[in-house]
Amino acid sequence: MSVFSRSRAAKALGGIALASASALVLAGCAGSPTAPSSPSSSGPAVEREDLTLKLGTVLPQTGSLAFLGPPEEAGVLLAVNEINEAAKGITVELSAGDSGDTDNKAYETTVPRLQNEGVSAMIGAAASGVTKLFLDSNVSEGIITFSPANTSPDFTTWEDDNLYWRTAPSDLLQGEVLANKIAEDGKSTIGIIYINDAYGTGLRNVVKEVFESTGGTVVAESSFNTGDTSFDAQVATVAAENPDAIVAITFDEFATIAPLLVNAGQDAENFYLVDGNLKQWGDDVSVSLEGAQGTTPGPVLEDDFVERLNAAWTEAGNSELEDQSYAAESYDAAVLLALGALAANDVSGTAIAGKLQEVSGGSGDGTACTTFADCADIILDGGVANYDGYSGPITFDENGDPTEATIGIFQYGADNTHTRIN
């Protein structure tokens, strides 16, 4: 197991000597929170009244990332349930909403509604391109935007008045792990098909730079735009070079692109996917994906967490989750927001934002804790809490980025569903 420093990579990606993918991947050992230390009581007593924290979600119920909506919403729901059950002087009121995508623009209805409801923070969006379209509006309203799944490197330097945070790592990490994995697999040439948006171009740039630094060559690349339905030109461009591997940085478009690639003579075992399309495809893709691989952020989740997640989701009238992508990141987002409010003794967005780095352990001090209830006790006793969550230690830097994260590697079987291999 190794720890990846997000801020270090942002400054030095182009020049560092890259380690192997296996060394970069923080495999499942980060998914099991450690036992909390005893709370500190060194801080001054704080006069308190019960707080009511209003949170909203802007997560994909529709659109190209709709497969990520259920686990993300389930993570938030479970966290809110457990925060309220803990009865630590704060009650969370949750209002759910659809982000959609940049094509159907469901966020254009959701975001103003949540703003009018007076939420302190919105958890979402999943797609970086969607978040970019409402982030400035939230900043002007003093509302925190806290994404469990945004990975675009652009957010690290966004002018956000300290109101943008995320529990997902930047694609500087996912792209590095994916490129090194491809090189480790003995591939010397790759072709890239990518969506022309903040997510696609950001991830494509990192994959290309890192793969070329290992001695490999990007022999073909072709982009498409959100809403496109025909990909013959992109497939023809890449297939003509017959690369050793093909990287598909897409969303649901992959269901159309994969058969076109196979029909063009490309072997699916040489396909490499990313978090935007690494779903349990099953019969939704008409060709076999056996042997294809892909990456997505997140540790191996504890069985107990998955059971609690499914229980909360199904008790709310939903079907059992097919996977848990970004569920832990969503859960941790809600917990951190509640802890930030407790630490600030205030539910305004700016006050909570002023405490988020502290409660994540990013200020360099604090007592380690792994549940909302234990962390809340530390805060209520006058101490500083350092929350280590199900998505990892988190430990925010000054930009609102987690400095420690996990990337998993998955492989597809004959039934077009994937399992984790690292």
UniProtKB/TrEMBL annotation:
Residues 52-360 form the Leucine-binding protein domain. CDD domains: PBP1_ABC_ligand_binding-like (cd06346). Residues 1-27 form the signal peptide. Gene3D superfamilies: 3.40.50.2300. It holds the Pfam family Peripla_BP_6. It comes from the Bacteria. Keywords: Signal. Transmembrane segments: none annotated. InterPro entries: BCAA_transport (IPR051010), Leu-bd (IPR028081), Peripla_BP_I (IPR028082). Belongs to the leucine-binding protein family. This is Amino acid ABC transporter substrate-binding protein.
